[in-house]
Amino acid sequence: MEMNQVTTSIKMRRKRNGQINIKSGNKIDLVVKSTIWILSLLTILAFFFFNYSGLQLERAIPETWHNLRVMFLEPALNHFSWQEAAYQIGVTLGLGILATVFGAIIAFFLALMAAENLSKPWISKTVRIFVAFVRAVPTVLWVLIFAIAAGLGSEAAVLGMLFHSVAYLVKAFSEAFEEVDAGILEALRASGSKWWHVIVHGILPSTFTYLLSWTFLRFEINFSVAVAMGAAAGAGGIGFELFMASGFYFDLREVGFITYAILLIAIILEIMSTRLKNRYFPGQVTS
Amino acid sequence: MDEQKMRKGKWQATIFLLLIILMTYFASSITQFNLLESITTIPQAIGWMVANLFITSEAITKLPGIVEKLTETIFMSIAATTLAAVLSIALALLGSKTTKVNNFFSVLARFIASFSRNIPVVAWSLILLISFGQNSVTGFLALFVGTLGFLTRAFIETIDEASSSSVEALSATGATYFHIVNNAVIPQSLPQMLSWILFMIETNIRSATLVGILTGTGIGYMFDIYYKNLNYDVVALITLSIVIAVIIIELLSNKIRKVIL
């Protein structure tokens, strides 16, 4: 316990790469302060850039209040049945599972290429740049672009979501691989192991649980992404029903029911991932 | 003994893999997903992208409009994130173990955070769209609510991590609650908090596109219009401009993060 506290207090004075932070406090202070000032200024400016067409604030606020009350206090199903709702949630979960499982498999191999201790510098750089580009395009644009080529349906949705899952997991996985003890790799290599031998016997056993918990964290994100894809790209599932209920039928009670259903699943997933986090990487905030 | 352990581990891994395969199988049957078909569509899709998604001079003429919408979207994400951060600090102070006023407010703050975070931003935008209509305020509010939940959770963990010993020290000297918060908690966790805010701005610019498609605002709406008109060269230009904006903002915030952390 005592030991632990000492190490954490030392860690705090170190930078990410392990160097001791010897910068004077003033520079950090200055950057922090100026960033805050710039952000506040941009926030004030933002309100001049907004497009206010059709906004009636004095009407909208009480109306939202009323709508929220109807939604959350009188949820009901009018256009489809309980079974149908359960099925649609299943579809959304299914999209999330498929994108996560295939994403994790592809990310595993790409991460092997991206990890600096397992691959050549130029390969790792190329993969990283590719992944950064993929990540910069919003998921919904990937899905819509695939939808033209593959036709709208689960294929386009899964492929589009896959892109982002891969980009996210490659980063997490390759960081985990880079933390593997260099001694293990060296010992394996010295004994004449081939590259894949090193992976199977050195890398996999020591990072397996880590990779699994990252994958699960991504699944939690992919569930809400799947809801979004249903609504914005017509990929089906509960998100599409939500979109129909609010934009097509204007049925607030149904919107309320669907929101509760999504909330329930999301909270279950969150509890599971918090447990995983506390077990496998305590004291670390991950998103 | 070790061998037994290893064998047990192997068993567990096998069962686990089987479970995943089973789950994937169910998932693909419920969503009618066909792996082979989707693999064959990838080259087809890339071919389509190469053939159709290139930027013509005609698309370039739309650039001023695109830039205007893009700035609107960027400003929307920054404003939503910053204002949500201000409220999140208050909620996090109430919710954190080291600085909570009492248990009731702590639970309340955590509940608000969990509620606003776990309802996807899509649901918020659709809910707000009904009464606020198609304008930037709807998008702003949708991003605001989602950010609030996320930042509150991140800030609670930051405060818990950074300041328990200094809070104890200050309260031992008889400092008041506001003294403690002002002089110990905020200064210590500010760099970490700022890093989260920057991260959230990056994320929000990407989700602003999605919110824009749903609420008819900003760059997302513009994308949607040209997409539905099959005007793919403008679609390509819009996508490219989003990518450039996101990458610039990521590089900027990485630079700031490197200095402050």
TrEMBL record, chain A:
All residue ranges annotated as the ABC transmembrane type-1 domain in the record: 89-273
Membrane topology, from the record: Multi-pass membrane protein
GO molecular function, one term: ABC-type phosphonate transporter activity
SUPFAM superfamilies: MetI-like (SSF161098)
UniProt keyword list: Cell membrane, Membrane, Transmembrane, Transmembrane helix, Transport
Transmembrane residue ranges: 30-50, 85-115, 127-150, 195-217, 223-243, 255-273
Cellular location(s): Cell membrane
One of the record's GO cellular component terms: plasma membrane
Protein family: Belongs to the binding-protein-dependent transport system permease family.
Name this protein carries in UniProt: Phosphonate ABC transporter permease
Organism annotation: Oceanobacillus iheyensis (strain DSM 14371 / CIP 107618 / JCM 11309 / KCTC 3954 / HTE831)
UniProtKB/TrEMBL annotation, chain B:
The species this protein was found in: Oceanobacillus iheyensis (strain DSM 14371 / CIP 107618 / JCM 11309 / KCTC 3954 / HTE831)
GO cellular component, one term: plasma membrane
Gene Ontology MF terms: ABC-type phosphonate transporter activity
Superkingdom classification of source: Bacteria
Family to which this protein belongs: Belongs to the binding-protein-dependent transport system permease family.
Record protein name field: Phosphonate ABC transporter permease
Keyword match Signal: no
Residue ranges of the TM segments: 45-61, 73-95, 107-130, 137-156, 176-201, 208-228, 234-252
Record-linked PROSITE patterns: ABC_TM1
Keywords: Cell membrane, Membrane, Transmembrane, Transmembrane helix, Transport
Membrane topology, from the record: Multi-pass membrane protein
Location in or out of the cell: Cell membrane
ABC transmembrane type-1 domain ranges (all copies): 70-253
Cytoplasm found in the keyword field: no
InterPro entries: MetI-like, MetI-like_sf, PhnE/PtxC
Signal peptide segment: none
